[in-house]
């Protein structure tokens, strides 16, 4: 706790500072990928997995529109539709 409460400015090495920017991506990947690739607890990588198809649709929608709300709406709608179709 002394590290967090210290009033002195701590100089971190450049490699630590540059690697800290990858932490949010790593945490998000850890939370999202198991739900996409193993929705029932077992690895399920197939064209019949609606989560993978909906994730691809979501990524394409966000990349094309540059708005996350479009990805949320389109991803949710595509997952609901795909779960009924597949």
Question: Which descriptors apply to this entry?
Answer:
mainly alpha, 86 residues, elongated
Structure overview:
This protein has 86 residues and is mainly alpha-helical. Helices cover 69% and strands 0% of the residues. It contains 5 helices and no strands. Helix 4 packs antiparallel against helix 5. The longest helix is centred in the C-terminal third of the chain and has 18 residues.
What's the structural blueprint in terms of helices and strands?
Blueprint: H1 2-5, H2 14-19, H3 23-37, H4 50-65, H5 68-85
Summarize the structure.
The model has no long low-confidence stretch (mean pLDDT 90). Helices cover 69% and strands 0% of the residues. The protein is mainly alpha-helical and 86 residues long.
What general form does the structure show?
elongated
The largest pleated sheet is described as: none
Q: H/E series, N to C?
A: HHHHH
Radius of gyration: 19 Å
How far apart the termini lie comes to 52 Å
What structural class do helix, strand and pairing data support? Answer: mainly alpha
Residue runs with pLDDT of under 50 for 5 or more positions = none
How much of the sequence lies in strands comes to under 5%
Number of helices: 5
Q: What's the count of strands? A: 0
- Average pLDDT taken over every residue: 90
Helical fraction equals: 55-70%
């Amino acid at each position: 706790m002394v590290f967090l409460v210290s009033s002195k400015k701590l100089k971190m090495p450049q490699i630590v500072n540059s690697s800290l920017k990858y932490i949010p991506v790593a945490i998000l990947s850890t939370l999202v990928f198991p739900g996409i690739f193993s929705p029932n607890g077992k690895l399920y990588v197939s064209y019949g997995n609606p989560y993978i198809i909906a994730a691809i649709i979501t990524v394409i929608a966000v990349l094309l529109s540059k708005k996350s709300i479009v990805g949320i709406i389109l991803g949710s709608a595509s997952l609901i539709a795909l779960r009924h179709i597949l």
